[in-house]
Amino acid sequence: MRKRFRRTREFIGRHPRAASLSAVAIVLAFLWATPASWQTSTLRLAVPIALAAIGGIFAEKSGVINIGIEGLLIVSAFSSIIAVYWLGDGGATMGVSNLWWGLLVGILVSVLFALIFAIVCIEFKADQIIAGLAIWLISLGLAPFASRIVFGSPNTASVARFGSVTVPGLSEIPIVGYLLFDTEPQVYLMLAGTLAGWYLLSRTTFGRWVVASGENPKALDTAGVDVRKVRYAAVLLSGVFAGLGGAGFALGTLGTFAGGGDTAINGRGFIAIATYLLANYHPVGAVLSSFLFAGLNSLQTALQSAGYAIPTELIRTIPHMSVIVVLVLVGRTRLPDAAGDHYESGED
């Protein structure tokens, strides 16, 4: 048994991308055979994981390890709900639905926290892991505290959610139609964000600067590009994607924010980190990998609803245990050479 496990791990180590794609393909094939309700649930649950993963890719590719992604999801989810509540649930402001204003507020708050993280890490050269943990812990305490002030409870009031948007004609395509063309706006935003993230990182000059900033910042500096500005932009971009994921999840799937325990986000930011490591920092691969964890989350919910004689606490560990398994098997994902390192212009 040990030899078989060792061979499996060695194969994954030599061919991480093939192994990752195989694992995702197996899960997608499994989801394809499941009921439509499970498929749509998986797609919605993948939104915060996928978008946070894309944001994490930009930050880490630039050389800044942002494990505070979980905190960005928390503050964006909470602030989007509170914004809709204050603006008027179900109403509109300046002709635009308050849900969209709530989404914008969630993104802006996430970017603000990402900016604080960037200043602490880039200007003051703080340890990036500790700074990321600080952002998470502050968010973990701040959101329930603010909720208690406004609602007298760590849980917010419920607000309206995004409704489904149907694309005429395309929604009639068998299987794919109801999944991709008859769904909520946050799913469309996830798909658009995936393409935008891939194009920006792989096909633009800025994307090449981001990669160079994380691999060889001195070479980028020598070429006349300000490494600090590139890293600032990448971290702020991680705030945009995480904010989109957190706010979209709150306003499209939850309709409320639960501040107790691990909050409504429940570790999805940390799962996003495992997701982009599994995908070896590829935005499209990260989104496909997010379906793996979202599918297991749907499985957890289905098992709880079915009332099987399995302890609820054990069922809830399924998505998180899968993260541990993935990290054990995919042990050779190569970090950018300068990830976690500080850089000053002109240093040797």
UniProtKB/TrEMBL annotation:
InterPro entries to which the protein is assigned, alphabetical: ABC_transp_permease
Location(s), subcellular: Cell membrane
Topology of the protein relative to the lipid bilayer: Multi-pass membrane protein
Keyword Cell membrane set for record: yes
Location (main, coarse): membrane
One Pfam family in the UniProt entry: BPD_transp_2
Record CDD domains: TM_PBP1_transp_TpRbsC_like
Name listed for the protein in its UniProt record: ABC transporter integral membrane protein
